Amino acid sequence: MTVDKNNSKHIIADEGKVFQKKSDGFIYGKEIYLGYTYYIGGKKLDEPHLEVVEDFEEIDAPQEEK
What we know:
Layout: E1 2-3, E2 10-12, E3 17-21, E4 27-29, E5 31-33, E6 36-40, E7 43-50, E8 56-60
Antiparallel strand pairs: 1-2, 2-5, 3-4, 3-8, 6-7
């Protein structure tokens, strides 16, 4: 994983990897801009959560169907 030198809220997955949110398993793709989330696991939060790198994990990119 690489953190953008010009914007610490922009993270980029390694080659062949994508980001998956740990809390609900949603696959986001190769790049993410961290920000506030208002829902976790389909449930509305009382207060927004400021996302951090630790909220995500890198997984192997799924193979696209032909």
